[in-house]
Write a structure and sequence with these properties.
about 325 residues, alpha/beta, TIM Barrel, twelve-stranded mixed β-sheet, about 20% strand
């Protein structure tokens, strides 16, 4: 099914980017995302199977989706994930397929994922310090993540980005070492301002390490940074280039520089709910439609309604802001 009409919301934003969570489970416990114990996961029978995911993606591609990112939880804990990647990579119309992972299982899965057609990876890593890694994730897995990154580079991945959550009074000492590690290995690090998406209500604005402060630190201690000319206005990260030619670095500044007015993304949760924003309060139940035998046209109509109802922005910097009822691991990264 192909529909020539693009997915445009009431603010004129064209949507061509879909993030699909394949599980809400994770093998680490980052304090800003999940409690250490007592996490309640969705029953496996309520998680979309590969056929349902593929069907929805095909419908979405018929409506103009061109970029697809597979997320979790931790997507590599989903059994046979390379099988799904191969099926998604084969869908005509997908121009960009990427995966976000914490890297703990990447050493094992890098080759199967590459063989399945994946070429872009985002690997979450906040620090190169073993003790601080364990403090943040509550797991002693830094060595596994670093081996996974080395393996991914060796098997042929050339577009690897590192995602680092910037929590004030915790990771200041990690900003420069992580940037140097990325420069030495041909990676691009993206620093993400700490957002109110944790399951324990730990967030407050005073804990956000701001993009401007990180830019100043990197410019001072490594090389001056300048904005990349002619950036993609719909990209979530503001990209900067080092003056010495040593690559680029990105900043996802959802708190200090909201990019809502350029947003082009939709999210499908692991349990089959469509969200027009990471911070959305309301969702649309795609799974219920598919499992009731609804035709593709009904699914497409639901997608259009979801996009049409998209708000102007999350208002994270106003008194109107309300945190979403789901934590990050349940929404999808």
């Amino acid at each position: 099914m192909t529909n020539a009409n693009p997915l445009v919301d009431s603010f004129g934003r064209v949507h061509d980017n879909l993030r699909v969570s394949v599980t809400d489970r994770c093998n680490i416990r980052c304090f800003y995302c999940m409690p250490e114990t007592g996490v309640e996961f969705v029953e496996r029978s309520q998680i979309l199977d590969f056929e349902e995911i593929e069907r929805f993606v095909r419908v979405a591609v018929g409506m103009g989706i061109r970029k697809l990112r597979v997320t979790g939880g931790e997507p590599l804990v989903r059994r046979d994930l390379p099988v799904l990647i191969r099926r998604l990579a084969a869908i005509p119309g997908i121009e960009d397929l990427a995966l976000t992972t914490n890297g703990v299982l990447l050493e094992e899965f890098a080759q199967p994922l590459f063989d399945a057609g994946l070429r872009r990876l985002n690997v979450h890593i906040d620090t190169l310090d073993r003790a601080r890694f364990e403090q943040i994730t509550r797991r002693d897995d830094l060595g596994r993540v670093l081996r996974g990154l080395a393996t991914a580079k060796r098997v042929g991945f050339t577009r690897i980005k590192l995602n680092a959550v910037a929590v004030k009074n915790l990771v200041e000492a990690d900003i420069v070492p992580l940037a140097r590690y990325a420069r030495e290995n041909g990676f691009e690090v993206r620093y993400i301002e700490f957002m109110p998406l944790d399951a324990q209500n730990l967030w407050d604005r005073g804990k956000v390490l701001l993009a401007d402060d990180m830019i100043a630190q990197l410019s001072r201690e490594i090389s001056p940074l300048a904005p990349v000319p002619d950036p993609d206005p719909r990209a979530p990260a503001s990209e900067y280039a080092y003056a010495d030619g040593g690559g680029m670095v990105g900043f996802i500044a959802s708190v200090s520089r909201p990019f809502c007015l350029n947003c082009n993304r939709l999210r499908l949760t692991a349990d089959g709910h469509l969200r027009y924003c990471l911070f959305a309060i309301e969702e649309d139940d795609v799974k219920a439609l598919m499992r009731s035998g609804a035709p593709d046209e009904e699914i497409a109509a639901l997608v259009r309604r979801n996009v049409a109802g998209k708000w102007e922005g999350h208002e994270i910097n106003s008194t109107k802001f309300v945190a979403p009822p789901r934590p990050m691991y349940s929404i999808g990264g």
